[in-house]
């Protein structure tokens, strides 16, 4: 059993921190910008709610962060009230935020300067994966730090892989989002085409999902897409944030991502239709003129 701090209790962080408490039986301290959310978490799982990231991190063996973006991440880790300043020598900072590779390297340097370990560890699997404790975790960092942290990360994960040095976890998550964007646009066009052709989409998917076209998105999203239901899942706003990170990194490394850039603009169109919080599978709504 370890002393763990978890900073950021959003739709992902809330259940992830819960698994650290219930599955890992760790001593868990939590911090959330909205104090009511932290109080609710403590009433459900136990543990301790703290008033600053530094208070949560002080004396902890592992400090997890799961916030919105690069700026949010800096605000809870750096500065006088941030986690890094309060962490004890040898503790490990594990960031589950989907953020840039640049901020991951920045935090790695800040942690190393204070005698801390650091892992960038973005996740995939969505809210359902977080709630069920079956996330995929893509990690960047040193092998020894990864080995020390993996048993704790396993509390909320089904797959945990070390991808390379600091920043590699975030770069791998970018590839994940590139693939999802293309898959969802293809699935949307396939369903759209099938309906225009007068086919039974359920029958079509039942067959093609067992072949080379099959994917997690097809298995888990075709029914709601066919029904025109999008008030669930991974929000378009979040996907656009992620794709902005991807396209910025591509500009830096020289990668050419024409399909990703196009799908990003399709998501912008969904936002203009009021679909900011719709699931990413709402690309079909655009094709259907809704």
Question: Which secondary structure elements does this structure contain, and how are they paired or packed?
Answer:
Elements: E1 3-7, H1 13-22, E2 27-31, H2 35-45, E3 48-49, H3 53-57, E4 62-65, H4 70-77, H5 83-86, E5 92-95, H6 101-113, E6 117-120, E7 123-124, H7 126-132, E8 135-140, H8 143-153, E9 157-164, H9 168-196, H10 201-208, H11 216-227, H12 236-253, H13 258-272, H14 283-287
Parallel strand pairs: 1-2, 1-4, 2-3, 4-5, 5-6, 8-9
Antiparallel strand pairs: 7-8
Overview of the molecule:
The structure is a single chain. This protein has 290 residues and is α/β, with parallel strands linked by helices. It has 2 domains: 3-164, Rossmann fold; 171-287, Orthogonal Bundle (N-(1-d-carboxylethyl)-l-norvaline Dehydrogenase, domain 2), CATH 1.10.1040.10. It is 54% helix and 14% strand. The protein contains 14 helices and 9 strands. The strands form 2 sheets. The chain has a 6-stranded parallel β-sheet, sandwiched between helices. Strands 7-8-9 form a 3-stranded mixed β-sheet. Strand 8 (135-140), helix 8 (143-153) and strand 9 (157-164) form a beta-alpha-beta unit. The longest helix has 29 residues, at 168-196. It starts with a strand and ends with a helix.
Descriptive key words:
54% helix, six-stranded parallel beta sheet, alpha/beta, 290 residues, N-(1-d-carboxylethyl)-l-norvaline Dehydrogenase, domain 2, 14 helices
Q: Which of globular, elongated, flat, extended, rod-shaped describes the shape?
A: globular
The Rg value, from CA coordinates, equals: 20 Å
Give the full name of the CATH homologous superfamily of the largest domain: NAD(P)-binding Rossmann-like Domain
The termini sit apart by 51 Å
Instruction: Provide mean pLDDT, rounded.
Output: 97
CATH topology of the largest domain: Rossmann fold
Spell out the helices and strands N to C: EHEHEHEHHEHEEHEHEHHHHHH
Total discrete domains: 2
Major sheet: size, sense and barrel closure?
6 strands, parallel
Tell how many strands the DSSP assignment holds.
9
Estimated structural class: alpha/beta
Relative helix content? 40-55%
């Amino acid at each position: 059993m370890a002393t763990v701090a978890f900073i950021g209790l959003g739709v992902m962080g809330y259940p992830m921190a819960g698994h650290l408490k219930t599955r890992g039986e760790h001593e868990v301290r939590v911090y959330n910008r909205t104090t009511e959310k932290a109080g609710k978490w403590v009433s459900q799982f136990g543990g301790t709610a703290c008033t600053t990231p530094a208070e949560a991190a002080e004396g902890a063996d592992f400090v997890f962060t799961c916030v919105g973006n690069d700026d949010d991440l800096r605000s809870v880790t750096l500065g006088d009230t941030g986690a890094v300043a309060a962490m004890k020598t040898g503790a490990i900072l594990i960031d589950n935020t989907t953020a840039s590779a640049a901020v991951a390297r920045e935090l790695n340097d800040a942690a190393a300067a204070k005698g801390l370990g650091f892992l960038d560890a973005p996740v995939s699997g969505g809210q359902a994966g977080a709630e069920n404790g079956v996330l995929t975790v893509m990690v960047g960092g040193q092998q020894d730090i990864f080995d020390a942290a993996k048993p704790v990360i396993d509390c909320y994960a089904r797959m945990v892989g070390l991808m390379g040095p600091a920043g590699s976890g975030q770069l791998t998550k970018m590839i994940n989002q590139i693939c999802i964007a293309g898959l969802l646009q293809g699935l949307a066009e396939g369903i759209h085409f099938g309906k225009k052709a007068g086919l039974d989409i359920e029958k079509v998917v039942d067959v093609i999902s067992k072949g080379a076209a099959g994917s997690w998105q097809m298995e888990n999203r075709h029914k709601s897409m066919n029904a025109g239901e999008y008030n669930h899942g991974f929000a378009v706003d979040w996907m656009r944030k992620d794709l902005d990170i991807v396209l910025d990194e591509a500009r830096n490394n020289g990668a050419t991502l024409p399909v990703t850039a196009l799908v990003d603009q399709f998501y912008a169109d969904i936002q203009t239709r009021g679909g900011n919080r719709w699931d990413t599978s709402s690309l079909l709504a655009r094709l259907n003129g809704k």
